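TASK: fixed-backbone design
INPUT:
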């Protein structure tokens, strides 16, 4: 019986079109999912649209478009981006889905009711984060660190609160013991450091007036809507059947990996497990926290005007080269810079001159040779250094490992100079080179799936045809 593997991306806000940071996370999650499919695990990759946020309401009003129409249009752009990047989402769960997501979130609320109470509250609210902050959590200008330059709103209203404070010691124990494994270690330590301070109970509802009557209604109280983070995190459950298909839910939950950006680590490592503990539900196993893209050395910002449109890049350079750049240039757990100049350098050096040139050379030399069938599978090559790197989510290092194999095969051809030899003498050299290329393609399957398929098809034998280059050089 196959193992199950359930992985999720963060659920992106759909108040604007996708940017290159979303593309990065989609590709990272897809690569991990593909690895598990290749290993024979029954795999589910979920994403969706975080559609009940106040920022979505404000963005629709600014655009002058009816809210549901605005959200549907933007959610579709995220789905299209995934398809363009060869990302295989098995489920895309919309937050505005009243049939499944609303009922699932109301069920979660009811399971947590013993930890929910109502009180009046006044606090500083960041619409960008959809979160209240205390003054000591803000920068020197009194702004949120994630959204500098945006003034916080002073909000006073009566809301429902969740007894987060009741779960402080349990969360410390779960994270310390890696029962909830947070990678990298620095993020685990960051969450434990936060948990050293007394946990404050959190507001988990908004008045209908402030929510503009948008979002999941509170069971039994038609004057309030759920706090967006209470319902959005539940997309990880509602998408797989929580509250409406218990067979599917029991099959997939808990999540094996949540892939998220560092700005939302607290929601996933502290709030989300606390909600689940309160509800008596299983906890996610691993939270993978990746870094951010800067653009030419600056943080992406609408104000600066440096938001990078991944769709335009795919149209210009192709999906596979973008996947390579995202996975190779950015260490999984660190911030990295997106630069079109650097993209072109890496494309020409690694894809055109490296992988592309090697496959072209060997194919041209191999026209007269007959090859046996290759029976190697991904399971056969998933071992040693490569396996260790992937198990630790060091995707950039795993790609580096593959490129070392490309260099080794290149050196074989350069040293042996098979074009100078007679056919009997060059045949074993070329058979060796073809077998190395086949292994390289198998190792590349999770990272560059279409490129790997093209290489495996071309080098399947018994004869090998010379084809147009995989990656023509960029000017």
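OUTPUT:
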């Amino acid at each position: 019986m196959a193992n199950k593997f359930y992985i999720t991306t963060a659920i992106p806000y759909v108040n604007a079109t996708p940017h290159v940071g979303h593309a990065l996370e989609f590709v990272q999650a897809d690569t991990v999912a593909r690895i598990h499919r290749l290993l024979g695990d029954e795999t589910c990759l979920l994403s969706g649209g975080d559609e009940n946020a106040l920022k979505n309401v404000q963005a629709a009003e600014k655009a002058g478009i009816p809210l549901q129409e605005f959200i549907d249009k933007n959610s579709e752009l995220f789905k299209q981006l995934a398809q363009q990047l060869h990302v295989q989402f098995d489920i895309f769960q919309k937050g505005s889905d009243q049939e499944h997501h609303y009922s699932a979130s109301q069920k979660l609320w009811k399971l947590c009711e013993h930890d929910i109470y109502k009180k009046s509250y006044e606090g500083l609210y960041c619409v960008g984060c959809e979160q209240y902050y205390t003054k000591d959590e803000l920068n020197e200008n009194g702004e949120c660190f994630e959204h500098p330059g945006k003034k916080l709103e002073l909000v006073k209203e009566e809301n429902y609160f969740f007894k987060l404070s009741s779960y402080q010691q349990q969360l410390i124990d779960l994270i310390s013991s890696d029962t909830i494994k947070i990678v990298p270690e620095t993020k685990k330590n960051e969450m434990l450091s936060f948990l050293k301070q007394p946990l404050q109970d959190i507001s988990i509802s908004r008045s209908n007036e402030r929510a503009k009557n948008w979002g999941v209604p509170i069971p039994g109280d038609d004057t309030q809507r759920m706090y967006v983070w209470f319902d959005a995190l539940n997309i990880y459950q509602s998408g797989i059947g929580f509250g409406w298909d218990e067979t599917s839910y029991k099959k997939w939950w808990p999540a094996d990996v949540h892939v998220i950006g560092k700005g939302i680590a607290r929601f996933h490592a502290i709030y989300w497990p606390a909600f689940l503990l309160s509800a008596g539900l299983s906890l996610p196993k691993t939270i993978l926290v990746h870094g951010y893209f800067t653009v030419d050395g600056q943080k992406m910002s609408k104000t600066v005007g440096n938001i990078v449109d991944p769709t335009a890049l795919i149209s210009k350079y192709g999906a596979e080269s973008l996947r390579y750049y995202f996975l190779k240039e950015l260490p999984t757990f660190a911030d990295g810079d997106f630069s079109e100049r650097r993209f072109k350098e890496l494309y020409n050096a690694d894809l055109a001159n490296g992988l592309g040139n090697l496959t072209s050379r060997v194919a041209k030399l191999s026209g007269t040779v007959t090859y046996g069938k290759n029976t190697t599978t991904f399971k056969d090559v998933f071992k040693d250094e490569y396996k260790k790197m992937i198990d630790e989510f060091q995707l950039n290092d795993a790609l580096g490992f593959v490129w070392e194999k490309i260099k080794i095969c290149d050196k074989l051809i350069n040293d042996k100079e098979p074009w100078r030899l007679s056919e009997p003498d060059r045949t074993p050299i070329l058979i060796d080179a073809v077998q190395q290329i086949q292994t390289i393609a198998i190792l590349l399957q999770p990272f560059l799936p279409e490129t790997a398929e093209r290489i495996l098809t071309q080098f399947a034998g018994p004869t090998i045809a010379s084809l147009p280059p995989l990656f023509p050089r960029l000017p």
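COMMENT: The mean pLDDT is 93.
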